[in-house]
Amino acid sequence: MPESGDDPAGGYRTLEYAVTDGVAVITLNRPNALNAFDRPMKRELLAALRAAARDDAVRAIVLTGAGRAFSAGQDLREPFGGDHPTLAEELRRLYNPIILELRRLPKPVIAAVNGVAAGAGASLAFACDLRVAAETASFVLAFGRVGLVPDNGATWFLPRLIGPGRAAELMLSGGPLSSARAEDLGLVNKGVPAESLAGEAMTMARRLVDAAPIALALTKRALNRAQEGSLEEALEYEASLQGIAGQSVDHAEGVMAFMAKRSPRFTGK
To answer: Does 265 reside within a domain?
Structure first.
């Protein structure tokens, strides 16, 4: 049987999914638990991301939380071990596929961080392409307080986003990182008043909706690839992707629109 949430039209129990003007907004919706991750929400989030990836009407995704938190991370009331998966099994079966889906999605994902993003919630925000945060938001990697280590890609993403020294400080101390400080470090693309967060995220998303979908997808692939290899490899990969983009209908449309001094009408072909 399909997992709950496989069909957006059928609704979700732990999150909200809505598409407007090319933007899919996925809202983690367990506000009474500060949007902490239980197994149904992990499964539904993965299903929602896959649904957005398949939907040609979706060109950008905004990921946010209901209530006063983005996500407090793993729901510590959920049992592990014995008749239940171990923590390692949980990561491999449910969490890691979410992070990989975010990176492989051929569409840009914006984290609209409305409140605290802690543990796996912080890692989820790090894995998105862009981050806009409310001035009242914060990031916390206090895994050590419960005798655990950072996971969900935090040890891979955070040093690349803010440098190894700052990443080590945040992970080893477990202290909070304010939205303003996160913006100073480049972790957050833009900090805004809480009441402006949803509007700013949608404005950012709609700018992406107006861009050429193939070019965005290939740019995301190039950025992912550039995190790993040498400059020579990055240059060659860029050339390969440019060969694909250069043959697209969108490229031809972009050139014609530029020459005619009009806005391009991209179709994703």
So the answer is: no
In the block, tokens 């959920």 appear at 78
Residue 99, pLDDT above cutoff 80 = yes
Query: Are 240 and 162 in a shared domain?
Result: no
Count of CA atoms in the C-beta half-sphere (13 A) of 134: 20
Question: Which CATH number covers residue 230?
Answer: 1.10.12.10
| Rounded CA separation 29/251 (Å) | 39
Contact 14, 41 (CB under 8 A): yes
CB-based contacts of 246, cutoff 8 Å, min separation 6: none
Report how far residue 151's alpha carbon sits from residue 95's, in angstroms, rounded to the nearest whole number.
Answer: 9
64, 78, 63, 42: which is closest to 114 by C-alpha? 64
Q: Based on the domain organization, do 244 and 224 belong to the same domain?
A: yes
Model confidence over 121-145: pLDDT tens digits? 999 999 999 999 999 999 999 888 8
Spatial separation of the C-alpha atoms in residues 125 and 187, rounded to whole Å: 10
User: In which domain, by residue range, is 19 found?
Assistant: 8-209
- Joined together, the tokens standing for residue 163 give 């440098």
Q: Strand order of the sheet with strand 190-192?
A: 15-20, 23-28, 60-65, 109-113, 130-134, 190-192
pTM value?
Answer: 0.88
269 found inside a domain: no
- Our count of domains for the chain comes to 2
- State the average pLDDT over residues 198-224: 95
